[in-house]
Structure formats: C-alpha cells, structure tokens
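Supplementary material to the annual report.
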Amino acid sequence: MPPRIVVVGGGAAGIGAAGSARQVDPGARVTVYTEYEDAAYSPCGIPYVHGREIPDFQSLFLQAKEVYQQAGIDIHYETRVTEVDLGRRQVEVEGEGSVPFDCLVVASGFDYADPGVPGADLDGLYYVKNIRRAMEWDRVLDDVRVAVVLDASPLGLEMVTALAHRGIETHLVDSHPWPLAEIADPDIMQPVEESWAELGVKTHFNTRVEALVGDRKVRAVRTSEGELPAGIVVVCTHKQPNTSLARRAGLAIGSTGGIVVDERMATSVAGVYAAGDCVELPHGVTNIPVQGLSGSHAYAQGKVAGANAAGGDRTYRPVYVPWGMVAGRWMIGGASFGETLATALGIPFVMGVAEGISRARYYPGVKKVRVKLLAEPGSLRLIGAQMVGQEGIKERADFLAMAIMTGVTLEDLAWMENVYSPPIGALNEPIAVAAQNGMASVRG
Amino acid sequence: MVTFSQWLRGNSERYLLERAQAEMAKRYLDRPGPPAESGLGPLFWRRVFVPIYRRLPWGLRRGVIQAIPGSHRRHWQTRGPIRRPPVV
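Predicted assembly:
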C-alpha cells in the first residue's frame, strides 16, 4: 500500500517536501494543503516587482498548477487544516473533514510579529507575504505619496529600497541604532544608509513606534520622535514561526518558538516531520537553535523532510547561514554571525578587516568591497564574516559559509589561491587581505 | 503560550543585543544605543542579568545555553575540519 503523505503548507518547504516524497516513492499519495490561492511562487521577489526591477508578478511563479497535478502532487488551494490528531493519524480539513495520513510534514511557515501598538487593526497596513494581496497593493502604491516602513528587517530593507526606486517618499522607522542591527554590523550598514539618503529615504533609528493613527484607514505613524504622515504602512516585523497547529497537536517547541526537529527533520512524534520557517535548527558554530532563515534553507529542509516521510533516509546539517541582499545601492552579506552578535553573546573572537576591490583597479566598473572576518582565538578557525560591496558578495558569502563549516583558518585564507582576471577579480582578494590583517593583529 | 525557555531566550537575547548595539553604535557611528524602556522588568535584565552574564566565563555561558531544550539537543551530524588531501 503506497504511503499517504499529508503536507501542511504550500511554500518552499511544503512544495520541496511534496516533490521529494514523490521522487523517493513515485507511488506515494501526496496531498498538500495551503490556505492561499497559489503555491510555489517566490514571495522573495515581491519587493522587486513593487520596485519595478521585475516587470510583473507572473514571473515569480515557478510552475503552473497543472505541472504539480501531472507530477502526482494533489494541492488543495484555499484549504485550511484546522487540527492534527496524532492519535488517529489524521488531519481535520475545513470543508473536507478528517483526512488520514501515514506521515505528516508540517511546513506552516511564519507570521509577522504583531506591531504591538494601538491601531494595528487599521486598514492600510501591508504585510508582504501573499502574491495575490501583493498584486492588489501594487495598484494601491500607484497612488501613494508617502510610505512608512516599520522595522529595518531584511524585508524592511528590500521594501525601503523598492519604494524609493518607485519614487515614493519613504520613511523607515526602527528602534535600533542602525538598520538590520540584529544581524549586520554598523560599519557594514553605513554605506547602505548613505545610499538611502541619496535616494531620498528618511531614516528614523532609535525610534519606537507608539501607535498607528487613523479612523478606519491608517493616516499616520506616531513615534517616540513625533508623528509621520503615511499613505501606507509596510509592516516588516520579525518573522515568527507559525506553530499554532503544531502546538495544539503536542509537538515539542524550542526556545525560538520553532518546532524541534533532528537532522532528519523529524519532530518529537514518530512519522511527523517539519521544515521551513516553522522549525528551529542548530547553528553550526554556536550550536544555539536559530529560526527564520531563507527560502533556500526552507526548500532544502522540505526536500529532506519529504524524502524521509516517503521512506528515504536523508539528513540536513546544522546551519552556517550564508546571507546576502541588495539594500540601497549596495550588496551586503555574510556568513554565520558578525561582531555585534558575537559581542552580545560574549563569544571570544579575533577580527580581520580589509577594504578591497572587486575587479582590477584599472578595469571599468571596479567597486569597493569591505570584508570583515571573525575567528576563534588560538586556533584562528573562521567563525563569522560580513561584507559590503557592489558585486561578488553572494559568492563570497557562500564560500565563507563553507569555509566556516570545514574548519578553514585565517592562515588558510590569508594565503588562499584566488581568481585574478581584470574584469571579474582583483590581484588581491579582499578576503585574503582581511585574513592577513587579522593575523597581523593577533601577532600584535 | 510562551514557555519558560522561550521567555528566557527572548529576554536575554533582547537585552544582550541591546547592550552590544549600544557599544557598537558608539564605536562605529558615534550614535547612542537603543532607547531604554522603563519599568522593573527591563531594569532587571539591563542592570542585573546582562552584567552577570558578561562576567561569566564563556565555557559556563555556553554550558547554560546548551542546557536549554531545543533542536540542538537532538541528533545532528556535524562535519569536522577537513585536513587531508582528498586523494591519498
């Protein structure tokens, strides 16, 4: 009898799980439930449609709905799973009743944290998530003169840049002293702030939101520094794991609020797997659980969860979190953690910093690249990295995450081989120079 | 419902980061740190928890962090340093 696999959630993790389950066992009966009208599109691309870098929303869809049907994946759209009964091995589905399963994959994603201020129920608050709503909001943006973005989170940075590109007067309000302050270091973010100023963005750091003001529709944001008029408020608060179903079902939840899983993405209950923004995973350097990573993490975890649900045996690894994004006119990125988080946790480190260039110094289009490396004192094993530049940041972030995972030291990096070709790489690789500087600082 | 471990992590992370951000903002940007919230709770975390945490040796801090339940306590395959050529 082929296994009946139920997947809750149609995002990257859910679709990854469904596809992978069918690959491992082509006879598996895979049903995906999503509360949205669509599955398998790239929500990460939404800010770039708003910013007009991408011409339309259609290009964000990965596959037509028929493709999944043909692949034997039965997706139930706009269908909510209301309960999971682990004793009876069944889910309760709105409009369908009880649906039995042999294995379950929970890929219920995230919700934005409530702004936690009066007025959070007003119209005119845009939570960037669902592509259909994004299409509606995109039309609204045509008539918006002033926008306020709440929180300089990764999405907040993308939306600020997108709205500024669109010619909308954009204000960014954040309670921290610099943007992305929970992830990135201030010296990495300083060029971004400067480029936002050039784009006309008005930033309000160290500023708390006190209320969203309006009758039915928001018309202003009251902050600790005064009131800002707002035609629209884009809420980019922290992504919290959506675990209400998992909690009610009795799955173990960790200190991040995410579902506890092991390397097979198996939860605390046999036959139940979880993946994506609703789970927590150990960080490869600190072994501290982390949650709310990228779409590529979610998809890869989904594939592991789905394969195992179908009888396979795949494992996922602790995460070293390569990250990167465009903000203003700059690319920022890194791997593992930076100086701010290491300082907060009290992790001992030595540091090497360098300002390098992305191409040969004489080649047109050469850009500055700032690289900052953190290493464990004594062994000098790399433990973290952050960068800002205008090209080549993503590739360096991926490389550095792998370098951290494999135990590469500052000494290894200081004398690393590197590509030298005037249009794509300088004689001195900025990573190598940062490592040399780090070693010099250790030697005093 | 927030469990004890979520409450502990949420608060400790928040106030440890707040202190680190204040130091980094001063060092790199010559800006003040995040505005302090009033009340007994924030006062405890800021004036008692953070200074005590910072005085503990890293090994002890790490031990306490690892003792908190979560995914890191379950089985995970890790990869150690690769230190030999692949073909020998």
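Residues 322 and 398 of chain A are 5 Å apart (CA to CA).
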